[in-house]
Amino acid sequence: MLIGKCFLWTNILKKVDGCYHKNLACTVANPISKDMARRPRKQPTSFKNNYAQLSHILAPQSIISDDHIEQIHANALTILQDLGIKILFDEARDLLQKAGAHVVEEMVFFPRDMIEHALMTAPKRYVLRAPNSQNDQAIFLGRQLFASSGGCPNAFDRIRGRRPGNLDSFRDAIQLQQSFDIIHKLSPAPEPQDIPLHLRHLAMTETQLANADKALALYARGRAQTQQMFELIQSALDLSDDQFFADPYCSTVINTNSPRLIDIPMAEGIIDFARAGQLTIITPFCLAGAMAPITVAGALTLQHAEALAGITLAQMAKSGAPVMYGGFGTNVDMKSGAPAFGTPTHMQMTLGTGQLARHIGLPWRSAAGSASNTHDMQSACENTLGLMATTLAQTTLTLHAAGWLEGGLTFGYEKFINDIETLQTLGHFSKGVDQSDLALTLDPITQVSPGGHFFETPQTMARYATEFYDPTIADLSNFGTWESAGAQPSQDRATKIWQSVLNQFTPPSDTHIRIERITDMLAHFREMGGASISQ
């Protein structure tokens, strides 16, 4: 059966005196079938869209010629061999010296063959394990993974405003990350500042294990803290020593202190994670014009040298330790000195980093993010442009992909939800185009007369519920419908979505079993005062 006629508003561009003007024209469309009209509306808390395993569909793009990529790599090797890297951790310097590096006080000079050997032993492919094996992620060039905001000390939402992160907001963020399968691994933000530093690592590890079953993210802030977190994860997941050391079950981001310095916690973290077989994401944060040369080529050269130094240290600690080449390069605003994101320089450095990663054959990470102080058009544009660059560059893992505000100072709830829309759009895009015989058939075209419609062709009726991306937050209604429903902008709709997600959140099955396994251990670690951080 058919229901009454449907009016479709179409935007028609008419050229008048060389300019295009929009003219709204009301056209009468052919009737739509009752079966299609009865299509159930998606519930706002259903976000399992089969984006859990993605690979890039576009060929990686280049912005620097191959010969100049080779020159950047050669220049980085010259920096490492002749200028050196300052490493503040005694154990790291001793380890590198025994492996062939030249050490003068705190400066370490890396022979070229030492770097080349490290790149040979660094694995090109491995699996990042999760508490739920269905969330395991194979890591290699060509994969496409997204993670939420990391490192944010503050939280913001439209109900409670901007505030220091606490354990409640950290739990909220973990639950939001768990609820969308376009987020492939966890990120540790906003940080729970109401928990003392010597106990914070315990609370953050427990919260991740209690509310999610994706790969865990840790901070490397000292050997004692790292060891306690490793013991918690191994016990919670009921892993033998051989199982835990065989594959990475957690990751940490290692940031160098550009230019050319690796501090004690970062060097110690590289060694401890490598020896335990856990993943280090070696990421210089090179801000062109501030902590790195002002040119893209110069900043990439410094970034590459620092990343190679960290990767080499990891391989000297344990040959074959899983590592990820990292780059989070952008420019500073030369008026304020603040980092900028989504800029041409940010995008250029992302593409250049991808070329360098492919040059050495390692999976790699980049990042999106926003410098905007609030959830507005600026924040959306900056994050989207950053994500576009990671797509063009074939980034393996994109961090800070959702929720990042103020250059990483704040995790935004509404920002997270709106960024999820962009990520899911990219995820749907990466699934590619159906090129099967059923998709290419001429049957639908032969079934419709000239001037007709395709609403009721067998192909449309079989696919209308699944063929197109179904937005999570975008409102595709016409103006009258939108206005009568309250004229809500996207941030208002985002508030309702994150509230609904959190109100209806149920932890994944088996999380309670994992927590039961470590209840006594957590109590013991807390009773003994947790663990201090490295200075």
Number of helices in the DSSP assignment: 19
Helix content: 40-55%
> Which structural class is indicated by helix and strand composition?
alpha/beta
**Biggest β-sheet: strands ordered side by side in the sheet:** 8-19-18-16-14-12-11
Percent of residues in β-strands: 5-15%
Radius of gyration, in Å, reads 25 Å
Largest sheet: 7 strands, parallel
Q: What assembly state would you assign to the polypeptide chains in this entry? A: single chain
The low-pLDDT segments are: 1-33, 36-46
Mean pLDDT: 92
Terminal CA distance: 74 Å
What's the number of extended β-strand segments? 21
* Overall form: globular
Describe the structure.
This protein is of the alpha/beta class and 535 residues long. The protein is built from 19 helices and 21 strands. The chain has helices spanning 34-37, 66-83, 90-98, 112-121, 167-179, 197-211, 223-236, 241-246, 264-275, 296-317, 344-360, 377-393, 413-430, 437-440, 443-447, 458-463, 479-484, 490-503, 511-527, and strands spanning 7-16, 19-28, 85-87, 102-104, 107-109, 126-128, 137-139, 145-146, 154-157, 161-164, 216-218, 250-254, 261-262, 279-282, 287-288, 323-326, 330-331, 364-367, 397-399, 404-405, 410-412. The strands form six sheets. A seven-stranded parallel sheet has the order 8-19-18-16-14-12-11. A four-stranded mixed sheet has the order 4-5-3-13. The chain has a four-stranded mixed sheet with strand order 10-9-21-20. Helix 7 packs antiparallel against helix 19 (511-527). The longest helix is centred in the middle third of the chain and has 22 residues, at 296-317. It is globular. The protein starts with 6 loop residues before the first strand and ends in an 8-residue tail after the last helix. 45% of the residues are buried.
